[in-house]
Specification:
By secondary structure, the protein is of the alpha/beta class. The protein folds into two domains: about 25-120 and about 245-315, D-Maltodextrin-Binding Protein, domain 2, CATH 3.40.190.150; about 125-220, Periplasmic binding protein-like II (D-Maltodextrin-Binding Protein, domain 2, 3-Layer(aba) Sandwich), CATH 3.40.190. Helix content is about 45%, strand content about 20%. It contains 13 helices and eleven strands. The protein has helices spanning about 1-15, 20-25, 40-55, 70-75, 90-100, 110, 135-145, 160-170, 185-195, 205-210, 260-275, 275-285, 295-315; strands at about 30, 60-65, 85-90, 110-120, 125, 150-155, 175-180, 200, 215-220, 250-255, 290. A six-stranded mixed beta sheet has the order 2-1-3-10-4-11, sandwiched between helices. Strand 6, helix 8 (about 160-170) and strand 7 form a beta-alpha-beta unit. Helix 3 (about 40-55) crosses helix 11 and helix 5 (about 90-100) packs across helix 13. The longest helix is centred in the C-terminal third of the chain and has 22 residues, at about 295-315. It is globular, with a radius of gyration of 22 Å. The chain starts with a helix and ends in a 5-residue tail after the last helix.
Length: about 325
């Protein structure tokens, strides 16, 4: 009888560890729902080698762009919950899209298991160097002196640059005209060319233009100043509260991935982000490495989903 009981215990333990054992030695795919060369892809590729070492597995960055992140998200949601298919996403596809689109092929709360926050990417307001405004407060005040609204670019309807400018308009009373573009690159070009007055964007996507003197930073939409732009005040320091906008990137696994595997992935990611070469590349780009627990990421997702849903509802923003 004792032998039978022991055999049952061993068999149960083997079954419990089966999902983890099944993925041992298999390559891990990090799905990026955007084309190669973009900021999310950059972070994935900076992480990939070191994270692969920490996991003891080959790590492959798999680009699946399209439908504002939905194609990549749906692929991961339908993948086996064994830790071999992960989703590195910006805040838009996971926390903004549910409020922006009437129908989605995935449910962020139901279809994914949080692994960890990866980086924070705060928004910075930039203008043409010829613009006389030295701060975001001066920029907002100047718009109120003009009869016509001041045109501000975004990378598209419901994008983080769009939502950030809506927060600025509400917080400061700035008289702004939203001009949506198809992506950040043409929006930035038109700020440099003087066709539009300003643009909110992630520091990593703008730091090269700022250092090259093609754009002037005049406000940080975060609780503290940015390490690469220490002279640029936050909007709160200017007396304009409520503009904070963080286009964070985070790692998710398919729902029903075992807790033990989520924890293994989380600890490996923490070690990878603590690696000095990885940290140096991310910080040098303007991204802020910020690992978290799965529960902390889940709470952040709930907060930002509610925050951006309220902005989208109040401003009646519709997807293009």
């Amino acid at each position: 009888m004792l032998r039978i009981i022991l055999a049952l215990i061993i068999a149960t333990a083997a079954l419990a560890s089966a999902p983890v054992a099944a993925q041992a030695g298999k390559p891990v795919h990090i799905v990026v729902a955007f084309p190669p060369g973009g900021p999310v892809d950059f972070v994935a590729r900076v992480l990939s080698e070191q994270l692969g070492k920490e996991l003891g597995q080959t790590l492959i960055v798999d680009n699946k762009p399209g439908a504002n992140g939905a194609i990549g998200a749906e692929f991961v949601a339908k993948s086996a919950p064994d830790g071999t298919t992960l989703w590195l996403t910006s805040v838009g596809a996971i926390a903004v899209n549910p409020a922006l689109y009437a129908k989605l092929s995935y449910d962020p709360q139901r279809d994914f298991a949080p692994v960890s926050l990866v980086v924070n990417n705060v928004e910075v307001l930039v203008v043409n160097p010829d613009n006389p405004a030295r701060t975001g407060a001066e920029f907002a005040a100047a718009t109120k002196q003009r009869k016509e609204p001041t045109p501000m670019a975004s990378s598209g309807m419901g994008s983080m640059p769009h939502l950030a400018l809506e927060l600025l308009a509400d917080a400061s009373g700035a008289n702004l005209l939203h001009v949506p573009y198809k992506g950040a690159a043409p929006a930035i070009s038109d700020v440099i060319g003087g066709q539009v007055a300003g643009f909110f964007g992630d520091v990593p996507g703008l730091i090269g233009h700022i250092k090259g003197g093609r754009l002037k930073p005049i406000g940080i939409a975060a609780a503290k100043r940015h390490s690469l732009l220490p002279e640029v005040m936050t909007f709160a320091e200017m007396g304009i509260a409520g503009v904070d906008s963080d286009n964070w990137y985070a790692l998710f696994a398919p729902a029903r991935t075992p807790h033990a595997e989520i924890e293994r992935l989380n600890q490996a990611l923490r070690r990878a982000l603590a690696s000095e070469p990885v940290r140096a590349k991310l910080i040098g780009s303007g991204a802020d490495p910020a690992p978290s627990s799965p529960d902390e990421l889940a709470a952040l997702l709930r907060r930002d989903s509610a925050k951006w849903a309220q902005v989208i509802r109040e401003k009646r923003i519709k997807a293009e």
